[in-house]
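New to this. Please check this protein:
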Amino acid sequence: MIREYDSVRDRKPLRTCVVELQDFERGLEPTLPKGEEMADRYLAHMLRRCDESLGRVFVAEEDGTVVGFVGVLGRVVPEPDESQAYAYVSDLVVLPAYRRRGLGRALLERAVAFARGKGAKALRVGVLARNEGAARLYRRLGFGDYTIQLNKPLR
């Protein structure tokens, strides 16, 4: 079941999902902070961004347990060189024991429906270059490359 986030009952499991996502991404990009170190600050930041952008957080629930979530910003103000506002998937995670069951797809489909409902003409998502599984999922659901951001570590 996919439903809207409830700040009272879902905060702790949402935090668990943030830690899982961060630690997974840290395995791909070791310069990222540990999940436990950043989870509370990031969660507050993500929820604030959702509020400011007419966004929402949707959770995937199985047998009464939150097992994943998607954060979607409903309206991102475009940069001066862009012509229209867009919606943005800030985060998507499904806990490891619940992957490969279609929950990521269901969460993204809910994000797409929400973005359309807000009048967005495009939905964007960022993904780490090394996160090939996520990139495959996004492409299967119709996402394509928009920009590619390159990084050069400076020592």
About this structure: The first strand starts at residue 2 and ends at 4. The beta strands are 2-4, 56-62, 65-76, 86-94, 123-125. Residues 14 and 69 are 7 Å apart (CA to CA).
